[in-house]
Amino acid sequence: MKKEKVNMKTRALAAAAFFGALSFGYAQNTDSAKALEQTEAAVQTAAQNPAITALKKQTEANPEDTEALVKLATAYQEAQDWTNALGTWQRISKLLPDWAPSYYSQAYVYQNMKDEANAQASYEKYIAAVKPEELEANKKNLAYAHFFVAYKLQESDKEAAKQHIAKSLEYDPTNAEALKVSEFVNK
Question: Do the Cβ atoms of 173 and 152 come closer than 8 Å?
Fold first, then answer.
């Protein structure tokens, strides 16, 4: 009998919390509520992902295992756990400050987090970090990075935007969006 009363109280409290949270949620902006919901779902999915769990254990045992860290960051991205993906890419950048792909990946994550200022800064770091001997292998990513930076600068710094869009088109002359930005900045 006593156990039944405790269960009833627990259920009542849970229901009150649920409905209270539900009514609070409706009062919030649907975009931010949806973003929070997606983030919470991604974190929950990531926490339940056996690959992420194994990689976390591996990186805890050896915090400087950059190969495992890259796999972990990628697994977080695939689970759309942007916060943990970003943190892991940043750890990699500290361990390998000259490794350009970590900056490109950070920019990708920032874009998914809707943080365009940090995305731009990360793309700029990526562009600066690509070594001349790596240009050929990075053409596609360089084209996009230059395009993104040019797009963000087209209103505030047309000269810099012109330079970035020219580089973007040098790496990918068929990009229709880059051609549009080029047309705009070169008016």
Answer: no
What is the radius of gyration, based on Cα positions, of the chain? 22
Residue pair 142/107 in contact (Cβ under 8 Å)? The answer is no
- Judge whether residue 11 has pLDDT over 90: no
Residue 141 burial (10 A CB sphere; 0-12, 13-18, 19+): buried
pTM of the model: 0.75
Q: Where residue 110 falls among pLDDT bands split at 50, 70, 90?
A: very high
Domains defined along the chain, listed by start: 43-185 (1.25.40.10)
Distance (Å, whole) CA 91 – CA 121: 17
